[in-house]
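In the design runs reported in the main text, the only information available to the sequence generator was the tokenized backbone. The following block is the verbatim input for one such run; it is reproduced so that readers can re-run the procedure and compare outputs position by position.
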């Protein structure tokens, strides 16, 4: 395919998987490990989450090259109870550690009906929705989370003490699209604030604080300050819960113990993740779940939209529609990302 589309390039899913795998092999990963990493990142691109897709070759690649990430980790899985697994990522690429943890939780859930995996010694593992989709396709409902570098001040505080940690939920639908919710803990991403600054526009005072911890509408002051959590003090509590599960309970770093990959790219971050999976097949038949999920979505879709241009949707619909469309029409990738992928791929073993 590989044809231009405006300022981007179009690829088939197979082409991206091949190019991405060769690029990560060029950065030193074994072929099987590179395939795991690329599976997560290409799904992110299919969902339209380009900031968390193969564009991550830049940040992951820089850290692999300076030794901040281990290109050939010895990832271990320990069974600490019938349904409980502990994964040591040995400072591997985050999506690789994430895939090992997902498989460990699946194996536990297949045996026990419920499976939980805690991962440590990891790095940024991409968005949660690809893991949620893979779990749902295998019949598992999921709760998945990770901690992150500190960018949010504690509620009422004036310096960054917790990360913008992602949290996701998934519920399979054997007869249609699964429910997929993937969210971070801040009201908005810093990218939206940077865009407002570029346009010379003010931002809502609910988005961020200045460096002193005071809410601000000035985008420059907001970028010098801290992101605000969703739902005020309730979002703060939820962000702490994600870090307790992914960081503290997994025996990874937590809060300010997490290293910044920007400030210290050559040092391990020791991020933590958690995967909680439920085998829905233990709860009822495939038809039972299909009928209930279809009715669940129909109740929501039947609500008359306040804005006719924006019908009511179920979380995951936008991403899954984008995935179906891009699988038909091609996946758009920025030329700079393509050039970097090809540069690393050229170093891959023959």
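Verbatim output:
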């Amino acid at each position: 395919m590989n044809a231009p589309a405006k300022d981007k390039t179009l690829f088939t899913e197979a082409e991206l998987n091949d190019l991405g795998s060769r690029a990560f092999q060029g950065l030193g990963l074994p072929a099987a490990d590179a395939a795991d990493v690329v599976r997560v990142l290409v799904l992110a691109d299919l969902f339209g989450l380009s900031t968390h897709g193969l564009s991550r070759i830049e940040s992951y690649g820089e850290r692999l090259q300076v030794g901040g990430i281990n290109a050939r980790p010895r990832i271990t899985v320990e069974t600490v109870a019938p349904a409980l697994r502990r994964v040591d990522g040995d400072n591997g690429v985050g999506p690789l550690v994430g895939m090992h943890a997902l498989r460990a939780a699946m194996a536990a859930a297949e045996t026990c009906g419920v499976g939980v995996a805690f991962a440590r010694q990891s790095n940024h593992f991409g968005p949660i929705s690809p893991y949620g989709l893979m779990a749902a396709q295998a019949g598992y409902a999921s709760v998945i989370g990770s901690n992150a570098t500190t960018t949010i001040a504690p509620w009422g505080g004036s310096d960054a003490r917790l990360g913008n940690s992602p949290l996701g939920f998934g519920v399979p639908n054997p007869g249609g699209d699964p429910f997929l919710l993937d969210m971070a803990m801040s009201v908005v991403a810093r990218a939206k604030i940077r865009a407002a600054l570029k346009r010379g526009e003010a931002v809502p005072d609910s988005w961020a604080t200045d460096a002193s911890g005071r809410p601000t509408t000035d985008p420059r002051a907001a970028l010098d300050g801290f992101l605000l959590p969703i739902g005020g003090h309730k979002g703060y509590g939820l962000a702490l819960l994600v870090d307790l599960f992914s960081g503290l309970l997994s025996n990874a770093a937590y809060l300010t113990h997490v290293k910044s990959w920007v400030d210290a790219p050559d040092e391990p971050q020791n991020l933590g993740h958690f995967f909680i999976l439920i085998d829905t097949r233990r709860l009822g038949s495939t038809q039972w779940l299909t009928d209930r999920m279809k009715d669940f979505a129909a109740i929501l879709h039947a609500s008359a939209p306040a804005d006719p241009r924006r019908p009511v949707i179920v979380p995951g619909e936008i991403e899954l529609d984008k995935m179906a469309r891009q699988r038909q029409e091609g996946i758009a990738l920025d030329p700079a990302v393509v050039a970097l992928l090809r540069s690393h791929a050229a170093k891959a073993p023959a």
